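--- STAGE predict ---
source: upstream dedup step, 1 unique chain passed
mode: sequence only
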Amino acid sequence: MTSLERMKELIIILQEASRAYYAEDREIMSNFEYDKLYDELVDLERKTGITLAGSPTVSVGYEAVEELPKETHESPMLSLGKTKDREELKEWLKDKEGLLSWKLDGLTIVLTYENGKLEKAVTRGNGEVGEVVTNNAKTFTNLPLTISYPGKLILRGEAVITYDDFKIINEAIDEVEAKYKNPRNLCSGSVRQLNNEVTKDRRVKFFAFSLVKAENVNDLSGFSTREEEMEFLEKLGFEIVEYKKVDSDHVLEAITFFEDKIAGYQIPSDGLVLTYNDIEYGKSLGRTAKFPRDAIAFKWADEMRETTLLEIEWSPSRTGLINPVAIFEPVDLEGTTVSRASVHNISIVKGLKLGVGDTITVYKANMIIPQVAENLTMSDTLEIPKICPACGGATEIRKVNEVQSLYCTNSQCSAKKIKAFTLFVSRDAMNIEGLSEATLEKFISKGFLQDFTDIFHLNRFEEEIKSMEGFGEKSYHNLMISVENARKTTLPKVIYSLGIANIGLANAKMICKEYKYDIGAMMNVTTEELSQIDGVGAVIAGTFYDYFQQEQHRKMVEQLLEELIIEREVIEEGTQILSGKSFAITGSLVHFENRNALKEKIESLGGKVTGSVTGKTFALINNDATSNSSKNKKARELGVQIMTESEFLTAYV
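--- STAGE serialize ---
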């Protein structure tokens, strides 16, 4: 393979890994492996003098997804050059003074304040265009919504979720595959929500790390140092990223300070950032195509330990996915003893060429999460199990989005049944308290539960349940109350509780609304029809259709509905005047409190709202029809009408 061919191959691999991690919040390779491939690409580009279009060395971040409005940043947000060499940091600083601070591992946000009020919050996106998440940012637990500064203020910072909050949220999720891999993934998914109630529940925090712009007001004449900017932001009420002022004589000492602190530090961090304190000097250095020259990132040199792989533990889940976990001889890493690490999927297992007895190296990603870095033996002798460890049923390897994973094919798998019931009783589904996974496992093993409807007839086993360890008169009574309360629910929650692969509560709501809450119509829909629903797509349509093609599922759902009282969505006749019409919204609003309020009004009239303008868009709502915003330009190109709020209200409300 030539150098050019290898570069093309690396670009495809790294693009897929970045898209999965940043845009889809899933992980298909370890950070260690990504950095290794990235460094290989950098080296090849240096040697060949060629940089191909699409290379991650010249593109930045993820592309903004369609569900949220997009906006171009006032000034580009560049990545930072990086090093793991402490002496290189010292050399980089030379005789200048710098600020050394945490490099927080969350989601970078740009905030804009006007006249003392938070007006806008935009994610980093691809560095040029980000996603507008203003309503979500207003729920950040430590963010000031109003400040004393009367002019226009723009700043950047990191939205993060602490390790304690991450643990609490993950512990509430019973399914192994549904648990979040790390706080960064959880934070990204929480901030980029369509419903800001979800963001609020996740206890997201914000830490400012740089001032972008402060319009001069009265005697404010600007700042000459980064430290002055940080002190200014702190006085305005922002929590700022912890930093130390350093020179070349003290930078190594400061690195040690942060290194000693990270083991017990609650805020996720994947390194440090060193910035020149003198603002004008930093600006005078300019920038490369990708990196500013006034700052550099320091990434921890991972503490590696060699150990012996003892086994791969295979852990089944509700959907049949069997997760591989590496079990190895215990080693001390970053102050704790580690003996296991998730290997995530079959693709990674095969890439590492694992075998029992192999010598592997392990580390903690960001000094926290155990990972397998490399396999020094590469015996490639590990046998992928042909039978499920829980039920003995046959397994098969399936390839989804270029990632191979192992699944149990037995529909009656005991692990599947326990996990399925666990989802069914969870808060976002039927919300039945008192049925933990451990309790469900006992009930299933005793034959109390065969299918979901049996939950509503647990009173048949009253005496047996009362005599079980951990139960008694009061516990049984409370469980029965919770079961009875669960009978009154909504159809989207019922659909979600069934555990159909890829169907979350939001998808269930979309499908129910599209088919006017008619379960009969939904059970007989085709994949082609489902795929036409905005936000559904081929994969979700396929799993939904396949589920209801099985007669036992249809019968079970019909029997389940007989046990329930479904709260029906009341749709007044003649009100669905926007049925079949799709709208996009941009710009500031006057008559509606925010875009969500306008979206709800359009949806209440039967219409749909999408995040972008396409050939299917009926109209773009924008109070500034003459602006040159990207949505306006797209609307003009496609011949889509642009209407103001007033015009929309006059025509349809």
